[in-house]
Amino acid sequence: MVHDIAGVGTVQAELLRDAGHDVDQIPLPTHGATWRWPAKAFAIPVRLAAFLPTAWRLRRGHYDVVHIHFLSQGIVGVLAGVPFFAQAHGSDLHANLQHRAYRGVTRSVLEKAKAVFYVTPNLPAYLDGFRSKLIYLPNPVDIGEAARNAPPPTEARQILIFTRLHPVKGVERIFPAVELLAASGAKVTALEYGPLAAEYIDRYKEWVKFVKPIPHGEVGDFLCRFDVVIGQMKQGILSLMEIEALAAGRPVITALDRSLYAADPPPVVAVSGPDEIVAAIQRLRREPGELERISRESRDWAARNHGRAHHLALLETAYFGGSGPAVSS
């Protein structure tokens, strides 16, 4: 299991080990990953050179399965010259295919990968030339037993904006609602997370409490401090953050393209902008029974679609074709 994104690789490694597989987790160097362009360009050759020891380890490791997270990091599999699974998480696909510095690397990884996992149902739209390789692998969610069994909310007072402050998340459709929410007595919290954080803190600090990002192991307990969670407003899908909120039994308000979830629609409150956000929270205040119903259905939906056993079955089928692992000599 090479690299990790939002703890997904770690959870996958735990699932596989618990099922009796031997798993090595291999981190990759991230020199310059958080730099801005054009400075970031100077770090790319350094990062590629730093990938070489991992490529050599993969080549000599005689692994039955190599699973690499984030498409640009999949270049280490190309360098190693071994069969590998690549996992696309979102921006590594829809943003990087539009970026001249990453487009070639991304396409090379897609071409060389044995198969490509994708985590949200909107991503195949960006993969027309690779449809035969695609495997839908919804992110596993592990928020801890306490959060899974926490009581449902009884009022819609503590509101969490649980998304990265980035244009791709449509945050400009969320924050115009915060003044009205605060005026109605709601306590609004948001994460100090993403490239727009400084700007949004300066603009909305009067009505919103901004907190530092939460370590992955504490996310479940953190979510249970809130009554309602507001998620992304632009992509039409549930990212890992919205799914974690559902698993914790928190009613989620988000923009959703229901056609992407026709087989099993998630029990979210679908909205498209600030006026609808305010109206949805006011309705939930008037109908506390609706909070309990949505909380219960949210947990059930997350368990069906993102539970550990379900995810393990999908991984093993993809890796081994349902016939069990191959045995290295």
Can you put this structure into words, describing what you see?
By secondary structure, the protein is α/β, with parallel strands linked by helices. It is built from 13 helices and 10 strands. The chain has helices at residues 8-18, 39-60, 75-80, 91-94, 103-112, 145-148, 178-183, 197-204, 219-223, 240-247, 274-286, 288-306, 308-320, and strands at 67-69, 85-88, 115-118, 134-136, 158-161, 187-191, 208-211, 228-230, 252-254, 269-270. Strand 1 (67-69), helix 3 and strand 2 (85-88) form a beta-alpha-beta unit. The longest helix is centred in the first third of the chain and has 22 residues, at 39-60. It is globular, with a radius of gyration of 21 Å.
Task: From the structure above, extract its key features.
single chain; 329 residues; 4-stranded parallel sheet; 6-stranded parallel sheet; 10 strands; disordered C terminus; 13 helices; alpha/beta
